[in-house]
Amino acid sequence: MCGRFNATFDSGVKKLYTRLNINKVIDKPIDKRFVKAADVVSIVRSRNESRVVENAIWWLLLEQSDNGFKPSKYTSFNTRYDKLNTPRSAGYHAFRHSRCIFAVKGFGETEFKNKKPVHYYDMHAESGGLLLGGLCRDWLHPHTGEVKTSCSIITLPAHDKLKHIHSKAMPLILPQEDNLVNDWLNTEITNVESFHDLLIPRIPQNLLAQPIDKPLTHLALGEVEFIVKDAI
Predict the structure, then answer these.
(1) In order of start, what are the domains of the chain with their CATH numbers?
(2) 66-86 tens-digit pLDDT
(3) How many CB atoms neighbour CB 189 within 10 A?
(4) CA atoms within 13 A on the CB side of 149
(5) At 167, is the secondary structure helix, strand, or coil?
(6) From the centroid of its chain, how far is CA 124?
(7) 29 — phi, psi (to 5°)?
(8) Who contacts 126 (Cβ-Cβ below 8 Å, separation ≥6)?
(9) What is the pTM of this model?
(10) Three-state SS at 13
(11) What is its EC number (predicted)?
């Protein structure tokens, strides 16, 4: 996953928030077509036994400044699946205690060769939106008392059906099953063995892959490719 996603708050994404039992009138998420790494984004998490929408910096590791926080020099908008169970890694504690969800329209992928972009793609669900599995952390500033929330999206190895689009990785797309979502957001579930199967590359719903000119302008190029979901 290449550091961008589509957070357009359209009817399909609104339905996702309804399924997540979020009051989208009171807790309306950020509505933005082009979200990039280190931007402020909206996440869904559990806090004080309630499910809420919160704004967070899309960069899990923050550094303290005199008056607040800023993204760390260490890249952390994504958290690799194979680091989740490594003690002292950035996502180890969060994977056990503060998982979150990104309800999005779609995400972007860029393939590189010799550090130069080969192509850009926008990925969308055939219908509705996508739930991406993520992590979040809270940071308390010792001088100002400010609490800042940060987050990252979990990435998996590239799926065979997507390797021609992005050969290295894909985001964790959560199946939209109520019990699974409830467990993912349940802060009392700290035995992460139950999430083992989620860390295997899987496409739980049909996707549309649209080649584009560039992420910022996202003008369509060529035909849309249909990616069939995996069998259960």
Answers:
(1) 4-227 (3.90.1680.10)
(2) 889 999 999 999 999 999 999
(3) 15
(4) 19
(5) coil
(6) 13
(7) -80, 170
(8) 205, 206, 207, 208, 226
(9) 0.96
(10) helix
(11) 3.4.-.-
